[in-house]
Write a structure and sequence with these properties.
Length: 137
Amino acid sequence: MKTNAILVLAAFSLLLVFAAGVAVGQATPPTQNRLIGAVQLQSLDLTDEIDSVWGRPLRLRKITLQPGGIIGLHSHKDRPTVSYFLEGEVTYYQEGKPPTVVGPGQGFAEGKATTHWAQNRGTVPTVWIAVDIPKEN
């Protein structure tokens, strides 16, 4: 008799655990955001930048420029880009503007009117994230 009571109690307990699991599994998914933040770092209106995005990738890259490193003079005529700096500093030389030092937490947007070059004049690598839409991969 005692064994039957234990079996019934165990079966009832398993049934309760299963029912609770089903109830939790069927809980309504949340529809509101909570404890999330977003800060727009850079943006570039593409309306007048490029005629079509057909055949172009949206590319996300992590760039590292070593101390003494240089990115040669180039244009963003057909390659709009936004960048966000994580580490180090780079001196940014944009045509028609004074040199600018860019570091962590800063960034820039480069459109078709941007022709520039850059140099890491520091003693540590400069690391940044760049998102662009190049003509080829």
